[in-house]
Design goal:
Order of helices and strands: EHEHHEHHEHHEH
Bound molecules: P1-(5'-adenosyl)P5-(5'-thymidyl)pentaphosphate
Structural class: alpha/beta
Mean pLDDT: 96
Shape: globular
Low-confidence stretches: none
Strand content: 5-15%
Radius of gyration: 16 Å
Number of strands: 5
CATH superfamily: P-loop containing nucleotide triphosphate hydrolases
CATH architecture: 3-Layer(aba) Sandwich
Number of helices: 8
Strand order of the largest sheet: 2-3-1-4-5
CATH class: Alpha Beta
Largest sheet: 5 strands, parallel
Distance between the termini: 11 Å
Length: about 210
C-alpha cells in the first residue's frame, strides 16, 4: 500500500497553489506526511526545464519541443520525488501533472492525444493520480487574478481562445473519468472554495 497521489489542475490563476497549501494543512493535521510539489518542476533539473518552458524571452519552442520538455521534466520528477514519496506512504499533492499536458499541449496546442498517451506510459508506467482536483472557472477570471500579480510568463500571453480550449480539454477529461476527477467551482470567493476543499479532504480522510 503506497501513499495517495492527488493532483490539482485548472487554468491560469485558478487558485491551485492556494488550494494545495490549504489541503496540505488539513491532511497534515490528520496525521499524514504530505509532500507538496509542482509541475513543470519539483527537482532542480525539472525546475531548470520549467524556466525554459515558461520564459517569454528568446526562441519559442515548437509544440513538439514543448511536449517533450514537459515529459522530460516529469520523468525526473516522477523518479526522484513522486515515486519515492508514495513508497514512503506519504501523500503527494502536486500542482499540475499530466492532465495539464492533455489540456495545454493536447486540447489547446493540438498535439495528438495518442502521442501524449504513449509518452505518459513511457514516463509514468502505470502511475496515475488517485484523484485529479479540477478548479474550474471562466478563463477571464483566472487571467485577471494572474495579471494582477505582475509579469506574465509565456503561457499567460496566449489569445483567449487558447484558454477556452484548455478549459474544454479539462472538462472533457473530467466527464470521461468521473471516478478520478473532482470538479470544484473555483470562481467562488476564497471561503467558498475552501468549503468545497474541506469537504473533499474530509471524504479522503474518512476513506483511509
Ligand atoms: N503547463 C504545465 C503545460 O503547458 N503543460 C503541462 O504538462 C504542465 C504541467 C505553468 C504553466 O505550465 C503549463 C501551464 C501553465 O501555464 P503554473 O505555474 O501552475 O504552470 O501556472 P499558473 O496556472 O499560471 O499558476 P498560478 O500560480 O498563476 O496560479 P494558481 O496556482 O492556480 O493560483 P494561486 O493560488 O497562485 O492564486 C492566484 C491569485 O488568486 C488569488 C491568490 O491569492 C493569488 O493572488 N486567489 C483568489 N482570489 C479570489 N478568490 C479565490 N477563490 C482565490 N483563490 C486564489
Amino acid at each position: 500500500m503506497t501513499g495517495r497521489f492527488i493532483t490539482i489542475e485548472g487554468g491560469e490563476g485558478a487558485g491551485k497553489s492556494t488550494a494545495q497549501a490549504f489541503l496540505a494543512r488539513r491532511i497534515e493535521a490528520a496525521g499524514h506526511v504530505v509532500r507538496q510539489s509542482r509541475e513543470p518542476g519539483g527537482t532542480p533539473l525539472a525546475e531548470a526545464i520549467r524556466q525554459t518552458l515558461l520564459s517569454a524571452e528568446g526562441e519559442v519552442p515548437v509544440a513538439l519541443t514543448e511536449l517533450l520538455l514537459v515529459f522530460a521534466a516529469r520523468a525526473q520528477h516522477v523518479a526522484k520525488v513522486i515515486e519515492p514519496a508514495l513508497q514512503q506512504h506519504e501523500w503527494v499533492i502536486c500542482d499540475r501533472f499530466t492532465d495539464a499536458t492533455y489540456a495545454y499541449q493536447g486540447a489547446a496546442r493540438g498535439m495528438s492525444t495518442e502521442v501524449i498517451a504513449q509518452l505518459e506510459r513511457l514516463v509514468q508506467g502505470a502511475r496515475r493520480p488517485d484523484v485529479v482536483l479540477l478548479l474550474d472557472m471562466p478563463p477571464e477570471v483566472g487571467l485577471a487574478r494572474a495579471r494582477a500579480r505582475g509579469e506574465l510568463d509565456r503561457f499567460e500571453r496566449e489569445e483567449i481562445e487558447f484558454y477556452y480550449r484548455v478549459r474544454a480539454g479539462y472538462l472533457d477529461r473530467a466527464m470521461a473519468m468521473p471516478d478520478r476527477y473532482r470538479v470544484l467551482d473555483a470562481s467562488q470567493d476564497l471561503e467558498g472554495v475552501q468549503e468545497q476543499l474541506q469537504s473533499v479532504a474530509d471524504e479522503w480522510l474518512n476513506d483511509c
